[in-house]
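Chapter review: from sequence to fold.
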Amino acid sequence: MADTGKAIFRIVIAGTMEAIFHELTKTDEPQGAVFNSMLTLDAPGLVRGRKMQMRTGSGRHAMVIGEVVDHQAPTRFSHTHRFTQHGDPACTVVYDLKKVDGGVEVTLTVENIPIGTKTETEMRRGGDFILKNLKAIVETGRPPLGTRLMYAMFGALEFVLPARTRSENWPLK
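The token string follows.
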């Protein structure tokens, strides 16, 4: 069995808990904070045990698969997380929100990270990126320019994603 790890990322956002929680759980448009991916569910509603995926904007590729672990609006959302392009075990992503002076403290905790894997590298690199984009979206209405340019490039280059990530290879039902 592989060693597991934990990573914690934290930021304070000048916004409401409801606005922040909506950005992290919306299913009707790409999540600008989370690599512009679409949270896709096997049935409506974020309910414990519900299967979920983070798909590209076109829906043609499932980049992450998982299952809803906890949904307590507007304070906590957690889910399992496994990259479809890696053969690594799943980890668990937990978003906790609490009111503080100046706004809302958002804590992103990644638990059971499989140590020494590509998943570990991506999860340790992605935490700050997600929270900084979340802050920009809630406070200004959109991600920073560099992130928007990167997302445009992601969309244009979607055709180079590994065939393994195609959504038909990861049925939700």
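Two observations follow directly from the output. Strands lie at 4-13, 38-41, 51-55, 62-72, 76-83, 91-100, 103-114. The CA atoms of residues 42 and 94 lie 20 Å apart.
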